[in-house]
Amino acid sequence: MNALHTMYILLFTGAGFTCLGTLLQTRRLASRDVRRGLAALLVLSGLWALAVVAQLLASSFAVKKLLYTVGLVFGFGTVFAWLYFVSAYTGRQFHRDRKVVAAGAGLFGLAALIKVTNSIHGAYFTATLKATPFSHIVVDHSAIHWLLTGVAYTLSGVGFWLIYDAFKGRETPVTLYALIGATALPIVPYFLAALFPDLLLRVNYEPLGVAIFAVGVLFFVQDSFLELSSPGHSQLVDILSEGVVLLDENDGVVSYNDHAKEAFSELTQAGNIEAVDADLAALSVGEQCIVTTTVDGVTHNYQATRKAIDTGPQFIATAVTLTRVTRLVHLEEITRVHSKVNEAIIEEQTQQGIKERVCDELASVDAYQLVWIGTSDGTDVAPEYVAGETDEYLSEGLVDPASGDTAQDPVVEAVTNPDQPPGFVETIDDEGGSGWQRAAAKAGITACLTMSLSPGEQNGSVLGIYTSAEEGFSESEQAMFAEIRETLQHAISAIEAHEEARQFQAAVNQAGYALFITDVDGTIRYVNPAFEESTGYRTSEVIGRTPDFLTEDTDCVSVWDDVTSGSVWEGDVHNRRKGGGHYWARRTVAPVTDGSGEVTAVVAIDVDVTDERVRQQRLTVLNRVVRHNLRNRMNVIAGNASVLLHEDEPTPDGAEPAAQIRDTASELIELSEKAHTAEQLIDASENSEENIGLATLLKGLRDKMASEYPESTIETSLPKNSDISVDAALKPALVELASNGLEHGGSDPHLRIDATVESASESDREEVVLTIADDGPGLPEAEREVLENGEESALRHGSGLGLWLVNWLILQSGGTLDISVDSSGTTVTARVPTQSSQKTYAPNRSVSL
User: Whole-prediction pTM value?
Assistant: First the structure.
């Protein structure tokens, strides 16, 4: 072995072992990809150099050619190791781009195939064995070799340009470029060997240049080299737990780490950030936003922040960091929803409105796939309201108990089982679970929470919330839903009570009878519209007063004592109207008690029975007239008829019984006609709204009495303001009173009729006071009872219908009567309300007395 041979062996052996020996130093590099790229470059360069050594030591020509071919493959591989290293070192992502990697692998495989099959086709190179200055092969390369060599140097030049582009405009040490240039030094001895074949061998000197570059990087300028690389990128890609996307000045994607790729799988194929996510592209430096992605059917939220990059390669302009905030955003959402639910409870006025608003608000949370309310129609459980996007679950997950699957959807179970714990949470088991769980898992649901909206009630409404969150429902969520459940239950109960109260109030307001409510002290707190219509008092005029201002001749204190002790009182009361009129009412007074039985209020109902009372009196009086008067008169007729029948011969004395029969029959006819006339007058007064002027009424009365009783003396007096009207029904009543006084006044009767106008108590209206005074013997007590109270007893009753007619007509016109009897005669005082609008009185009324 000569000296030159030894020198070559030592030179290439040193280069090979230097490359392989420095592999341990690459562990000092922080970036995994930079470390991998440089290690691959060192290994391939070292193996390439050792392949040259093996070739120089081999004695067989065939082995020499084989080792030369292996060295070519290793050498071509260093180009791709170099590009991988440069891409990682400069912060780019070509080495992670699947398309780029696939293209590089294809090119390397094709070149390696051409090289290793050269012994077959011989188109790549030809070799000859040369013995001087020592045994070695001389290779002549064909065009294909130079083509692939040009590709290799072009690709290497791309790597050099990437480094230059990354650091252009910055103060870069000359040493770095010198080391990079060392990789091109092997070209010099290769061309010199072609010119001086006796001095240098035509072998591959590239391993020597790579060895110099590797030793220089790792031992001489390691600190400066790493400082000029992209350590920020390396650390973000390999160390940070949050996602990072590096962008150039045109928003092109330069680099990203695995966490970013997990959030946005589009990064592997996108060249620009806008193709990944529009919200990320819209971010300006210093801005933040929340972006939402879906990975394997699960929604995730990230806080994206865009920052400027002031260090590292110049082409990296900004970095977008992605911090996962799914749980935080979810908590913010449910906090917002909690507030919205409270707003819905306040704003909505119906149970259904609240239920629908709550479902819609909860379904607006991204994680809540389905929100629905289940209720029972008595046999099956059906959705009352549904919100969300997994309606298909309702058709697949609601298990019919009759199907034999004992495990039911939690909402269905809660509807049919009111003893289920409140806020029940069930986690979905998608492996071997029941039918509803498999359907839920298919819809992406991970857990279900149920809450009863009507606790303790069989077949009540149950709200179900189905989440797709990986963690299901957190403790904070369950606590929030416990508050929502309690609030909803109270709100729905309050609305139910309010709806019942509103329905009751509507019924009371529309009732046809007067109603008022007082507190336990008897102070009126509420009256319904029928009360205002019946009494003439407005609500504002009676609230705060006691009912005794309304009722006459009733011991209100005694009644109230009975009612507040828990009893119900019922009876007829004589009420006064605001306009001065009166009416009879059947009053029922009952206590209102609380849960403990204590009286908290009193409710009174007045039903106007004036017409009923008059009708009853009319029936009673007519019955009495028919039963008593007719019986007495028939007895007279029967007795006189017997006298006539038992006489054998008619005598002049028989004329008297016959006359009595005639007179009694006439009286019966007159009584019948008077009863018929009274019936007509009362019916006419009930169905007529005719009024008559007071002056016209009294003048007509005076003229009528003077005509029928010419021997009488009649005096009348009118108020100064006589241009007022009264109910026309008063005319027959006054005629009856005047006729009764004159008929019983003796041979020269005297009658005085006075009219005055006074202000009615508790009213803005006026009332007319009519006084009729006679000088007769005085009205019997039985007749006075008829006029004043409309009453009579079985033993003491009026003799006819006239005074009853007066009572009925005065009462019908809203008036009252008062009678006084003394030694000078009888005085009857009638108080009747004036009428607001005067109507023409028809003097030819169909009936009269």
Answer: 0.41
